[in-house]
Amino acid sequence: MARMKFLCDADRCIECNACVTACKNEHEVPWGINRRRVVTLNDGKPGERSVSMACMHCTDAPCAAVCPVNCFYTTADAVVLHSKDICIGCGYCFYACPFGAPQYPRVGNFGSRGKMDKCTYCSGGPEPDFSTAEYEKYGSNRLAEGKLPLCAEMCSTKALLAGDGEMIAEIYKQRVIKRGYGSGAWGWKTAYRETVAI
Amino acid sequence: MRRATTFLSTLLLAVMLFAVPGALSPAQAQNPIQADGQNPMGARPTADSVNEEFLFKQESKIRGRVSIPDGKSANLIQPQGREYQNFRERWLPWIGALVILGMLAALGVFFLFRGRIMMEHSQESGKKILRFNAFERFTHWMTAVCFIILSLSGLNYIFGKRLLMPLIGPEAFGALAQWAKYSHVYLAWPFMLGVAFMFVLWIRDNIPSKVDWAWIKAGGGFIGKGHPHAGRFNAGQKGVFWMVAGFGAAMAATGLMMLFPFALTDINGMQVMQVIHSVIGIVFIAGILAHIYIGTLGMEGAYDAMGSGKVDLAWARAHHDLWVEQEQARTGSGPQLKGHPAPAE
Amino acid sequence: MKAFLAAVIAAVALGVLAMFALTSSQKFAYQAFATSGARVSEPGTNLVGPRWNGDPRPDEFNGEPHGKAEGAASQPKRS
Amino acid sequence: MLIKRKSGEAARTKHQAVAAGLAAGVLDRRAFLRKSGLTAGALAAAGTIQLGSVRKAKAAGSSAVGPDTVIKKNVCTHCSVGCTVTAEVVNGVWVGQEPSYASPINRGTHCAKGAAIRELVSSDRRLKYPMKLEGGEWKRISWDQAYQEIGDKLTAIREKNGADSVYWLGSAKFTNEAAYLMRKFGALWGTNSIDHQARICHSTTVAGVANTWGYGAQTNSYNDIRNAKTMIILGGNPAEAHPISMQHVLSGKEINRANMIVIDPRFTRTAAHATEYVRIRSGTDIPVVWGILWHIFQNGWEDKEFIAQRVYAMDDVRKEVAKWTPDEVERVSGVPGEQLRRVAEKFAKEKPATLIWCMGATQHTVGTANVRALCILCLATGNVGKPGTGANIFRGHTNVQGATDLGLDVTSLPLYYGLVEGGWRHWARVWEVEYEWLQSRFDEVPAKGGRKARTRKENMESPGITSTRWFDAVNLPPEQIDQRSPVKAFMVFGHGGNTVTRMPEAIDGMNKLELLVVADPHPTTFAALDARQDNTYLLPICTSLEMDGSRTASNRSIQWGEQIVKPAFESKNDYEVLYRLAEKLGFADKLCKNIKVENGVPVAEDILREINRGGWSTGYCGQSPERLKAHMRNQHKFDLVTLRAPKDDPEVGGDYYGLPWPCWGKPELRHPGSAILYNTNLHVKEGGGGFRARFGTERNGQTLLAENSFSKGSDLTDGYPEFTFGVFKKLGWDKDLTPEELATILKIGGEKPDTVSWATDLSGGIQRVCLDHGVSPFGNGKARANAWNLPDPVPVHREPVYSPRPELVAKYPTRPDERQLRMPNIGFSVQKSVVDRGVAKQFPIILTSGRLVEYEGGGEETRSNPWLAELQQDMFVEINTGDAAERGIKDGQWVWVSGPENSAKTKVKALVTDRVGKGVAFMPFHFSGWYQGKDMRDYYPKGTDPVVLGESVNTVTTYGFDPVTGMQETKCTLCQIAAA
Predict the structure, then answer these.
(1) DSSP secondary structure of D498-519
(2) ipTM above 0.85, yes or no
(3) DSSP secondary structure string, D336-404?
(4) C52 vs A contacts (CB less than 8 Å)
(5) Which of B36-40, B111-115, D641-645 has the lowest average pLDDT?
(6) CATH of segment(s) B203-337
(7) Which residues are in the 4Fe-4S ferredoxin-type domain (chain A) (predicted)?
(8) pTM score, whole prediction
(9) Subunits in contact with chain A (3 or more CB pairs closer than 8 Å)
(10) Do A178 and D255 touch (CB under 8 A)?
């Protein structure tokens, strides 16, 4: 069974933000909700790298663990999803997430920030595949169509890789071997408790 | 062993209010040129690229620049979430269960051995003295009601999914938890107000004094016979007062930090706040359980103080002799009320 | 007993008050994450629902949707 | 687990189940529109339009490709890379975008703009119907009223002030067909003042490169960069301006372990991926290039054989280069000699090497000279005409290459036919319009300002006014403007108002215009920044996604885009608007004499066929609409690196993707196009050739034809001139012509048939025969290191007008005051005054400008797209940490950036960063809508204001124009920054 992961090859990422707008486009993500973002490290200095980041769909996901209502579930493809019907907007997942993935419709205090929203790896939610309800709560379901997340599919330099963890790690490995450098699989240690050994 | 280390580091995290870099997972060494984590400067941007290991050596999380006006999204990786997860899921349920069940067990044992402390009758029995006026009782009950709901909804955050959810199913539990969450957030406000009122109302009578020391040395009268002297509040009650004031303030402070994310602290701060909030909350609940026990089941006559506000003079004389003298001196005849032959039920 | 009842009522009242206070001090994400350079008229409602509480069920929704930003659209008032 | 698990099996099956709404078949496009209040009736209240339709449609169909989903392919309308956009359309509504894996150019990928492009066609900030300004209020009008009123006003202005008093500004976002139609429109109107964005992006490239080796275009392709072992990116930031090109750049860097050298004043996102970054002072490109060449010549690293065979007058360059010792280069540009030596060695020795440049090289007062110097660097090292080499010039807008090719340029007719009688007569033949009638449309210019009068014919052959100077042509005293009258009316198609430098003066110009017409999907800066009260019209034009037509990417590949959805709101396409205007002005019959008009809309395919019939000079003759459409159908067959399809393919066998021009002969010849220009290792029939013999055969006793160099399989084994019927007769090749071809040539030639050339022979016979003999129709010449017809035949360094180094101005002054392109250029006087007044002390920071990845051009369209706007919400200035600390400026705070002209100032946010060096500031050029601290949002017609507004950098940019093309100086001026 595939174990879906994201890998951002920072030596390819040019902070073009295609992943961000592709996400907005695919799911009609409203203004203020940022399921994916690109962070530039060491900005303006030699060694600068940009990394595209969204929910990493962690192994033993901290969000799922700390959720007081167990609204998270992991699919057979190891995608971490959640049910907005059960979510109470408490914010614990947001405290626990190492990647700042959870987003809330309202900002300011946790009185009623609304249901949490985050990257679904383009695989919808608990509702029936391709249903209107699924689309309105979680966005479209590309995985069920046999497609990968649009952010990775549209990545301008093919820096953002999505797919089975072993396959994308292999792609990344080959790249590093070919070009002779690589700044690593950002976030993998934290998310998957493993890294791409080269 | 690993668990213990992580737990320790988590506690350190809580106490010292900042992350302990040693507890973080070291990032992998990818770039041989960068293996020593040297500062990447120079004109060779490819060769000098930053990597996780290097950045984690500088700071406990990796931060950068984003163009969207959401400052927190500039944090790329903050692995402390893993530590937080570990504390919350591995340790907190056990801490909570042990402390609360431990307190219940202790009270049970105490009850078994000591039984209910009964009222000692004297010629003053049947006479009433006003112990708490209406406003004091109002304040107490407002705080108490909020506390109970806050405790239950708070415990629901930890135990709900473990105990309740399997029983009633996820949908019902989701709805219940939603309301629990709302009540937790909203009733925190009357609770904080109540704590503040109580503090102002009763601080005067809760200043520790020498009498308290004697009271403690005498075991508060719980053990053995006879009653040590006590003012309006004995040392035990003063303890409860200061616990409520202190823990209440701590719960309020940590709670507010979480309620208003990023107002005063960042995500790590909020993780720490959550740790403090939950640990204190559990101890607080345990403490209040004891308070409830002694105020109701544990001691005959004690409940009247907050029930009707009026207590039996004999009881008062026995437990708060100094206060009764003081009150009677102040009012001449004393505040004892006539016409109530029977003690309150 | 009166004091107790009063206390319960007060707690509930204060709780409700807190609810209103907290809710009104919240901003929608599209307001919080927009600067003075931007006028967001249609932030969108997918994923967050018409009331921007994450609940997409339109049957619960009546009245002005929050998907539409408050504040007047620009008026033609040329000098 | 308590919630449904996604079954792995199910996840792999394609669901055809389309949920309720669509399956019921009730939601056609009309229904969508009705539901969302988008019908005509609701348009009256357009400001409150609720655009849920797309989302609802999407929700109903979800992402599953159902039976009602139609896939349409078009080309991204943003930059020149030419990414294919794959649209999923359900019942006439564009509901989703899919990666276009088949395209060899983008291979499924997009940048932020391309990935958000679906929003353009449904943006609620679009201009929804024609509007006019009446007493300072925007009023809705009908299209008919608009055509009538505009037509009447144009006619009146023409009668009073002449044809040249109307300025026509076209767009690099046009399709090829629209660009061509508009140039033809301008010719029929009778003016050469018809321009577009190429003026302000790569006009200097076109002039400089064409004057070096024949054609002013990218020699190779984005894909071909994969072959390079060394690449220099000078004055370019493709990571933000052409993100998809970085796929090829970085792949090349990885596959070949290539050197990627970035030379730029700013440590850009591109520089972050360089193997070597060279920081230079803005405006010192020539010293740096000569500095590199100094090391090359010093060490004998030049390609001597290549120079001997294919380059004219390299020795003249050696003399100039000898002056640029490492010390002098470092003194002027700040680059250490040792670093340049490293760069020089790599570029000359680790070949193939390619040179990539963008607007950092072109937008200077020395733009043409810069570009020439860069070409010379390629020539000296033999890095032209082979895979992995070449001048890979990344053009700006989606079709800026095509619009330039098709003549939206004040100096040429379509496909670079000169403004000479031969050129005019050629197009008159193609259009079947009488040459004399065309001539009669032009003004006679009276003598004024000490200049001689011009006849109609002379005026017809005189280049027009550049778009960079349009407001000078309104504001300056009439005697300074070399035409009958100053500009009175301005017709703007698809062009922002914030793109010219010296905005305060441009705004003065706007206010003085008697008529301003903006035809655009958005109102643009023109609608919002001026204080006009009347005589201003806004015409809603649809995007190229809503129409058919071809576009030419930077690599000269032409791609056919099919209409994805019908034009939104009441917008119309360019073809229709031009046709209807021509109808009103009385020359529609001539405009579309050989072009089919269906329901009042000229047919795109027919326009392209007319281009094919006349496009010999640039090889736009073989790209018939049928062939281009076949390419779009067979995208997946083209090779990623060579861009070539397998020879045995029935539809596109052997073709290069998009038939990159020159694609010789008639479409039936099936020339494959030329993926790499000037490649002698290929047969002409395979896209090979030498340098174009454009400048004669001999100069000062030296031959201008190639020596011992010729393309593979050529019958002529040396240099040769361009082919005419006369040359054919000498070679005896006239016998190879068919009788029909011969008849056509003789008819065209009239009394002088020998002058009929490969470029004017409408039969295509000369080109066909050339191909059979394996020779390039345009000859086989030498590239020119010395372009004697240009102001600086060998490029020399000239300090910017606003030089931060006044002490260098005496040695390296800008060119003397001159008159160019009907206008005075007083750069020298300005520079002298700047030095005398000590401006560099008051304004000590160098200001440069450039792009952001989220926005495009003037930015009106992209700033109206919320998905993009959310990512860049504030105009900012990048300021060095040191400069910020000195001024007490913190990251994110408001600052005033003031410029040295017009007391101009802009209020922007500070972005404190070391991307810029000390003493340098950078501002993006996409913003407008704020002016000198004032938010002008209310001036837009209600509901059409872009989501994000900000100060335009051009409010503080200053004087300075390239002498050849009138290019403005945007990359190097001075400013001061203070906390607000």
Answers:
(1) S-SS-HHHHHHHHHH-SEEEEE
(2) yes
(3) -HHHHHHHHHHHHHS-SEEEEE-HHHHSSTTHHHHHHHHHHHHHHTT-SSSTT-EEEE--SBTTHHHHH
(4) 105-106, 114
(5) B36-40
(6) 1.20.950.20
(7) 4-34, 78-107
(8) 0.89
(9) B, C, D
(10) yes
